[in-house]
Write a structure and sequence with these properties.
Blueprint: E1 5-8, E2 27-32, E3 40-45, E4 52-58, E5 65-67, E6 74-77, E7 92-96, E8 100-106, E9 115-117, E10 122-128, E11 131-135, E12 138-142, E13 146-150, E14 156-160, E15 165-171, E16 211-221, E17 224-234, E18 239-244, E19 249-252, E20 271-275, E21 278-283, E22 286-287, E23 307-315, E24 329-333, H1 343-349, E25 354-355, E26 357-364, E27 369-371, H2 372-376
Parallel strand pairs: 9-16
Antiparallel strand pairs: 1-18, 2-3, 3-18, 4-17, 5-27, 6-24, 7-8, 7-27, 8-15, 10-13, 10-15, 11-12, 11-14, 13-19, 16-17, 20-21, 21-26, 22-25, 23-24, 23-26
Length: 406
């Protein structure tokens, strides 16, 4: 995120003294990525950021994963998933591998505990709801359609103004715009589907006083993903000023400019972010192909190096009758298995000029496994819907599935 910002009180030069009105020296903290050879920010604090007075185990929700074996496409009904109401502790693991985890939660209106993901960046898609995310960098408002990108090791808490549906993409790496859309100095280029004006970070610092403050920290050990409950001597929200290129921000899908073409465009044109071994795309309402003989729905495709996850968040899915796919659904189409439209859907799409559908896609370059949340809401008949029949007469549940944008 190489887009410079500065908020609050700062000395004229970095790594020099900054004092309050009583002469007390603020503590400087450099928060940097990739061994301080990539983006960073300098934060000026009243307290000592490393002053902890206790450390206890935080028992995370079930993080177990089950391989997709035997291999088959999957349909997971997230709106049937019961979750806790806490934006952090209520998350249930839906899908994951050693590079990225996808979790889901339907919140209440109580704030989450203070939380820090020390494994990687988080990109949380707001399916519904609104509120704020309070962070050490300041407050970031969120609304439906936002991606909320929180850098690794950022202390923050979610404060929903209303119940919110949050689709959390938790990386083991950093999440950033696609490199092909960036200049060699980090500016978003003219052919990118969004620009810096569309990224909304904190507008002012956010300071809170307190002592013996608990922060939940998600991190890794040889045993996998685990949690620790730190108690800090002073409140982490003690930053009086900061500057740099590393901070939380939001990007709303309404501001994404879909790239279209004369014939059907491949999925990479819909990309919005990327991390290590995965990409994030969004398929949004758009005009479709304008060649006289264009076929608007995609060709059958076998993404041989990736698993594809589509989360359907808006639009009209009447064309998917028989598949069970609807708003709130996830489809998992694994590498090694071709997927695409029902043959009759190809003819039906001819002459269509506009798609009114919204979906968030995650493609991973390592196989995804099912979390306990995903296993709890799987539709067992989905894999057979292209053929209309399957073991135990699963096809009797409906006709073949139809896909217009996956």
């Amino acid at each position: 995120m190489a887009h410079y910002r500065a908020l609050g009180r700062l000395p004229r030069q970095r790594h020099t003294q900054l004092r309050d009105d009583d002469g007390h020296l603020f503590r400087e903290e450099l928060m940097g990525e990739e061994g301080f050879s990539s983006d960073s920010s300098l934060l000026y604090r009243r307290g000592v950021p490393s002053a902890i007075v206790d450390s206890q185990v935080w028992e995370l929700p079930d993080q177990s994963r089950t391989p997709n074996h035997p291999l088959k496409p999957r349909h997971l009904k997230l709106h049937d998933l019961e979750t806790g109401s806490c934006p952090v502790e209520g998350r249930r693991l839906v899908l994951g591998n050693n590079d990225v985890r996808i979790a889901y939660v339907v919140t209440g209106t109580d704030p989450s505990p203070l939380y820090r993901n020390a494994i990687g960046d988080e990109c949380v898609f707001v399916e519904a709801g609104s509120g704020t995310v309070e962070t050490v960098f300041g407050v970031v408002p969120y609304r439906a359609g936002d991606y909320v990108v929180v850098p690794r090791a950022t202390d923050h808490r979610w404060v929903p103004a209303e119940p919110s549906r949050l689709y959390a993409i938790e990386a083991n790496s950093h999440i950033h715009p696609p490199k092909r859309y960036l200049s060699r100095f980090g500016q978003l280029l003219e052919h990118a589907p969004y620009c810096e004006r569309d990224l909304h970070g904190p507008q002012e610092t956010h300071q809170v006083e307190g002592t013996d403050v608990e922060v939940l920290v998600k991190h890794r050990t040889s045993a996998g993903v685990v949690g620790t409950r730190f108690t800090y001597a002073t409140h982490p929200f003690d930053v009086v000023g900061w500057d740099g290129c590393l901070y939380p921000y939001t990007f709303n899908i309404e501001d994404y400019m879909p790239i279209t073409g004369k014939v059907h465009q491949p999925p990479p044109v819909h990309q919005v972010f990327e991390g290590w071994n995965f990409v994030i795309c969004n398929f949004l309402p758009r005009k479709v192909d304008y060649h006289d003989l264009a076929i608007p729905v995609p060709y059958y495709h076998s993404n041989v190096d990736s698993d594809e996850v589509m989360f359907y968040v808006g639009g009209d899915y009447e064309a998917r009758k028989g598949s069970g796919i609807g708003i709130g659904s996830i489809s998992l189409h694994p590498g090694g298995h071709a997927h695409g439209p029902q043959p009759s859907a190809i003819e039906a799409s001819l002459g269509v000029q506009y798609f009114e559908e919204s979906a968030v896609m995650v493609d991973t370059f390592a196989p995804l496994e099912l979390g306990e949340g995903g296993r709890a809401v799987e539709d067992p008949a989905y894999a057979w819907t292209w053929a209309g029949r399957g073991p135990d007469s699963a096809g009797d549940d409906g006709g073949p599935a139809v896909y217009s944008n996956s």
